[in-house]
Amino acid sequence: MKTDTKLTTLGRDPHANFGVVNPPVYHASTILFPTLDALEAAQKTKTKNQMRYGRYGTPTTFALTDAMAELDGGYASFAVGSGAAAILAVLMAFTKAGDHVLCVDTAYAPSRHYCNGVLKRYGVETTYYDPAIGAGIADLIKPNTKLCLLESPGSLTFELQDVPAIAAACKAKGVVTAIDNTWATPFYFRPFDFGVDVTIQAGTKYICGHSDVMLGIVSIREERLYQTVRAGVDDLGASVGPDDVYLALRGLRTLGVRLPRHYETGLKLANWLAQQPEVDRVLHPALPSCPGHEFWKRDFKGASGLFSFVLKETPRAALAAFVDDLEHFGMGASWGGFESLMLPSKVDGIRTATKWGGPGPLLRVHAGLEDPADLIADLDKGFARLRAAAKGAT
User: Fold this and answer.
1) Of 213, 195, 196, residue with least CA distance to 205
2) 216, 239 in Cβ contact below 8 A?
3) Which 8-state DSSP code applies to residue 367?
4) What are phi and psi of 148, to 5 degrees?
5) Which residue among the candidates 55, 171, 250, 385 is catalytic per the annotation?
6) Which of 160, 164, 245, 334 is the most exposed place for a label (fewest CB within 10 A)?
7) What is the C-alpha separation between 82 and 193, in angstroms, rounded?
8) Topology of domain 257-393, per CATH?
9) Active-site residue among 56, 108, 114, 206?
């Protein structure tokens, strides 16, 4: 099946549910067993889609995880309560005291937080690496390196990585690779096709698509990793409620319609912003000027609606004048919903393996489903306010 057909059909079995098109919502904590043999078998064997207790999943959960595993091209998927929980579950699953982790320097902030906080407290060392390192990652692998965490493009600054080169180097030394694939989703990029072992997604974003659900997805490429990741997910205890799973399944059905629109609008905004005299540069993977663009062009089938741009030196009052009165761009965390967002972000002081240099503020944009002409008109008015405020400040 083609991807659009998979999005429409996976995780559904109407004839097993009285003809109901969408999988029903199962609210459950306790699961009953008819015999002692059945109870003991469930306690001993932790197999895929096994009904044991509500925290480990219900038929509603399994409908989503089966669909996500198929979309990712892997063996199995797990659903947890948030994207951050998915990251932590993977870090916990593959490490113990005395181990070493590699993490891309441009990772999502909670990834760094967990590495610098939780893992460090429990005796796990982290080395951050330049996203442009490619096969050179082999030089950073130690005898106790257990996991390499990738994110491509990088958070906030959108550098692309040579994913297959990094995956191959890690595989040669027995290091598991995991990647945060929230930006592209498997609709535009399938990391398993490039040698990665584990994928992580914040289903909160594009999978759900309506800014009303918290959800994380972990997928594994091969069965050999099932029990390891299962233990990490179970130990974390960060289950997701069945109503949120249902909303994720419903959002999944329209991903193939929504994501191309986000891509198209985002690229229009990026190209328009690149022409503004106040903009120093635009950080969009589909633009040739974006670091690692050649890897996007080689490996990805498209782009989402998330990117950044950097202003030239700008007084704070002028920045406030720009963002405070935008009509169609909300200002807040997260992204991937139907609404457009604009978030001023700070990169200085976060990176340790690389240096960030920008003359002015960085603003992260999520292009929603509004008409692009209205969004551009809103930005144009914002720049007019910025110019007036900057002139007044001088």
Assistant:
1) 213
2) no
3) -
4) -120, 120
5) 55
6) 334
7) 25
8) Aspartate Aminotransferase, domain 1 (3.90.1150)
9) 108
- In CATH, the number for domain 3-252 is 3.40.640.10
d(CA 354, CA 131): 9
Whole-angstrom distance, CA of residue 388 vs CA of residue 128: 41
Whether 180 is catalytic = yes
φ/ψ of 126, rounded to 5, equals -125, 135
Structure tokens belonging to residue 380? 């144009």
From 205, 230, 281, 364, the catalytic residue: 205
What Rg value do the Cα atoms of the chain yield, rounded? 22
- 325 in active site: no
Q: Are 200 and 182 in contact (CB under 8 A)?
A: yes
Name the pairing type of β-strands 145-151 and 125-129. unpaired
- Dihedral angle computed from the Cα positions of residues 202, 72, 147 and 333, in that order, rounded to the nearest 10 degrees: -10
Two structure tokens written together for 367: 């292009």
Q: What are phi and psi of 260, to 5 degrees?
A: -60, -35
Please give the Cα distance from 217 to 229 (Å, whole number). 12
Residue-wise pLDDT tens for the chain (394 aa)? 899 999 999 999 899 899 999 899 999 999 999 999 999 998 888 888 989 999 999 999 999 999 999 999 999 999 999 999 999 999 999 999 999 999 999 999 999 999 999 999 999 999 999 999 999 999 999 999 999 999 999 999 999 999 999 999 999 999 999 999 999 999 999 999 999 999 999 999 999 999 999 999 999 999 999 999 999 999 999 899 999 999 999 999 999 999 999 999 999 999 999 999 999 999 999 999 999 999 999 999 999 999 999 999 999 999 999 999 999 999 999 999 999 999 999 998 889 999 998 899 999 999 999 999 999 999 999 999 999 999 887 6
Q: In what order do the strands lie in the sheet containing 340-345?
A: 279-283, 306-311, 362-366, 340-345, 329-330
Instruction: Mark whether 108 is an active-site residue.
Output: yes
Backbone phi, psi, residue 283, to 5°:
-110, 90
Residue 13 contacts by C-beta under 8 Å, 6 or more apart in sequence? 23, 63
Q: Select which of 105, 180, 197, 234 is catalytic.
A: 180
Domains of the chain, residue spans:
3-252, 257-393
Query: ω into residue 153 within 30 of 0, thus cis?
Result: yes
| 205 included as an active-site residue | yes
